[in-house]
Specification:
- The protein contains seven helices and no strands.
- The protein has helices at residues 2-23, 38-46, 65-77, 104-112, 132-143, 154-162, 182-192.
- The protein is globular and about 40 Å long.
């Protein structure tokens, strides 16, 4: 499995490198020395799953629930997805007003596919940090994998280990109920792909 991932990674990196030569790339982040999982960040950023801000990747920054839904939608449909077509179709009361509604379409799409869920009060809490268990749940749902019987979050964390979502992660594996960092999510997203 590792050799297959490396071969696929090399092939994708080659294609991305060729593409960068043609159109240029902003994947060279000024804080690259702070990135622990460099290969996963380079690949997922190259695929358009992540974007930097002010030339930085911010690897230790936490991922919000809105950002997680965006990454999932881009994993499924590519970085050029027009999420605006899903605006106004959502069921959550707090996505339209969140930061100008930029994530509303991504969240609505993921909710319609059963990938994300909200809270009992009708909110999604898009600005709240996504925990490792929540992020893993979303990716497992996106992959259409049944986490099995048992108690959440133990079931999804066990399934994440089984399908190797944390495989080859440098540094400490994120805790179950701890906010996931951008650096860690790059690895989980890459392994999910």
């Amino acid at each position: 499995m590792r050799n297959l991932k490396r071969a696929l990674s090399l092939a994708l990196a080659s294609v991305m490198l060729l593409g960068m030569m043609v159109v240029g790339s902003s994947a060279a982040f000024s804080d690259a020395d702070e990135i622990v999982n460099k290969e996963a960040v380079e690949i997922t950023a190259g695929l358009g799953l992540f974007a930097g801000s002010d030339g930085k990747f911010n690897p230790t920054g936490t991922v919000t629930r809105a950002q997680m839904a965006t990454v999932i939608a881009k994993m499924l449909y590519g970085s050029e997805i027009n999420a605006n077509q899903f605006k106004g179709t959502g069921k959550f009361s707090d996505t339209v007003a969140f930061e100008g509604g930029w994530a509303e379409g991504y969240i609505s799409l993921c909710a319609s596919l059963g990938i994300v869920g909200g809270y009992g009060d009708g909110t999604f809490k898009p600005g709240q940090a996504v925990t490792t268990a929540e992020a893993v749940t979303m990716i497992i749902n996106a992959l259409g994998i049944d986490a099995g019987e048992g108690t959440w979050p133990m079931t999804v964390m066990a399934k994440a280990e089984e399908i190797e979502l944390f495989d080859e992660m440098e540094g400490a594996k994120p805790g179950t109920n701890v906010a996931m960092t951008r650096d860690q999510l790059a690895v989980v997203a890459w392994n999910g792909l």
